[in-house]
From TrEMBL:
Stated name of the protein: GDSL family lipase
Any one Pfam family match given in the protein's UniProt record, by short name: Lipase_GDSL_2
UniProt source species: Spirosoma radiotolerans
Coiled-coil ranges (or none): none
Molecular function terms, GO-annotated: hydrolase activity, acting on ester bonds
Gene3D superfamilies to which the protein is assigned, alphabetical: SGNH hydrolase
Domain of life: Bacteria
All copies of domain SGNH hydrolase-type esterase, residue ranges: 36-185
Amino acid sequence: MVWYEADVREVENRVAAIPQATNRVVFYGSSSIRLWTTLAQDFPNSKTLNTGFGGSTLAACAWFFERLIVPVAPQSLVFYAGDNDLGDGRHPQEVYLFFCAFAEKMSRLLPGVPWYFLSIKVSPARWGISQQILETNKLIRDELINVPDCQYVDMTTPLLAADGKPRREFFEGDGLHLSPVGYRVWQQALQQQAQIF
């Protein structure tokens, strides 16, 4: 995990510079979270904190949990990861096991804190592994019966067209990261989950 160290330190330093960084709605995960630069404007009635770091896998998010999440004592946690694990060739069952490791840490280190897993998006760049993405989402959704304080939020379907393919306007030119329009879709999806905030 050493290759994430610079990015993780950058997050730690940025959080350390924020007065009263605790007891917020914390967003955590890969670049889909890190690049969500309009969180404060999108959810103006809540104090949010962005602790995403680029390129991170679900495995990396579990690895750095004690450093990035435990110290900020979140009011609630919004979590997105798994995209990069699958992009790196991991099997859905492996990503599911990484999720289980993350869920165990949440239950043990932050018992009672509500958290929300945002389903893995199907993007144009990763259309070739769309079935693996959907399988991973199903494995995780089914597991949530056994995970206290966690809810699954479908962020995949709102980005798809009627034919089941991702809508191009919701993504940047790389076909992987969300465009401003794509983030508006995510904002609207989360606003329907009032309990998060």
